[in-house]
């Protein structure tokens, strides 16, 4: 039985509602921006990516609450949101023709081999950063029936009042019976630009996490985002889950409301060669487990295990941006549909891996492809 109290799907119009910023990312491929002459435009945003992936790959009914600006870039972004099947709830802004408000621009080349990707931002006068409590009509949105509310740490640090808005939305969603999730994604540089700095960031994250059922974040996020002391994670292997599970016990002691914690484990060998795994803490139990730990048949056996333990996948990465959001999407899909915890972690692990094989920030995978990889599928030609 699920430890999450999910509202019945047939009583709701929206499976997941995300709160966050929409951005447009300019991608010149493997060419550094200083030499670029053309680029692709991707519509993105950590919280939006989760909603878009759940809609396009997993067939869930999702929505995004965010700011929208009435100008050409806003029209482009709106078209992409519709294309992905995400229902929008926009707070409108008018562009003055000169300085904004704006939809943020992200400049990001992909790097190659020993040359890492380089990401730069222009978030000046960003409309989504201007949002504050009272700007979103939560009661009107929640009246449609919402099963899950999701937001993240990047949006929390984006503006002076965006963390307060997350808290307002999350508390309203919980009062309406929704499950809540938060991807810590702690960004010290963003918090440093706001009144109160990183100390305010830790305090606000802790206030938000008091209302969270499902927490996503690695050991470094837990340390820096919630203010815990710990080992220097940058000097440790990114694929060792032991310290992560130890940290979870500390987090759970302070936040007994948390029922699920999960993270990816990534080790970067080069820009295009990554080791990739993931772990899940589910109501005191650790996943993945060995195949041998499960019965050979019956209701207690997960559907997405065959003969192979879930280990480290060796990725040939096309574009790493969005892999973590891909993991969160697959995990949340499993939890929303009350799948076995082993299936949930495998769905996140497989979908996040597939997302790194596409350009852009959102999924081009199908559920069939995700489940095949989660079962241990190969890259043989599909005929």
From TrEMBL:
It comes from the Bacteria. GO terms for molecular function: kinase activity. CDD domains: KdgK (cd01166). SUPFAM superfamilies: Ribokinase-like (SSF53613). Residues 316-361 form the Carbohydrate kinase PfkB domain. Keywords: Kinase, Transferase. The keyword Transport does not apply. Belongs to the carbohydrate kinase PfkB family. This is Sugar kinase.
């Amino acid at each position: 039985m699920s430890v999450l109290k999910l509202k019945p799907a047939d009583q709701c119009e929206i499976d997941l509602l995300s709160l966050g910023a929409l951005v447009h990312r300019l991608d010149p491929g493997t060419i550094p921006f200083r030499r670029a002459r053309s680029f692709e435009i991707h519509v993105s945003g950590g919280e939006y990516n989760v909603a878009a992936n759940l809609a396009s790959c997993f067939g869930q009914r999702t929505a995004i609450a965010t700011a929208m600006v009435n100008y050409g870039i806003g029209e482009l972004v709106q078209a992409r949101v519709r294309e992905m099947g995400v229902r929008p709830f926009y707070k409108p802004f008018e562009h003055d023709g000169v300085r904004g408000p704006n939809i943020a621009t992200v400049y990001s080349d992909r790097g190659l081999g020993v040359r890492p990707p380089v990401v730069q931002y222009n978030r000046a006068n960003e409309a989504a950063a201007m949002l504050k409590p009272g700007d979103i009509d939560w009661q009107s949105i929640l009246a449609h029936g919402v099963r899950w509310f999701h937001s993240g740490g990047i949006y929390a640090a984006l503006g002076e009042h965006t963390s307060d808005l997350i808290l307002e939305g999350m508390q309203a969603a919980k009062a309406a019976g929704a499950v809540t999730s938060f991807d810590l994604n702690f960004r010290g540089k963003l918090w440093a630009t706001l009144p109160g700095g990183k100390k305010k960031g830790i305090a606000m994250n802790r206030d938000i996490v008091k209302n969270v059922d499902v927490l996503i974040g690695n050991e470094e996020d837990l340390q820096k985002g919630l203010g815990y002391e710990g080992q220097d994670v940058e000097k440790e292997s990114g694929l060792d889950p032991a310290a992560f599970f130890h940290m979870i016990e500390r987090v759970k002691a302070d936040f007994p409301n948390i029922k699920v914690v999960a993270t990816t484990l990534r080790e970067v060998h080069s820009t295009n060669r990554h080791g990739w795994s993931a772990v899940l803490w589910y109501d005191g139990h650790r996943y993945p487990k060995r195949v041998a730990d499960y019965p050979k048949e019956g209701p207690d056996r997960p559907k997405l295990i065959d003969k192979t333990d879930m280990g480290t996948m060796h990725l040939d990465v096309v574009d790493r941006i969005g892999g973590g959001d891909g993991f969160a999407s697959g995990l949340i899909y499993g939890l929303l549909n009350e799948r076995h915890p082993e299936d949930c972690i495998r769905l996140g692990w497989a979908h996040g891996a597939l997302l790194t094989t596409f350009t852009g920030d959102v999924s081009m995978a199908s559920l069939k492809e995700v489940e095949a990889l989660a079962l241990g599928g190969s890259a043989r030609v599909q005929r």
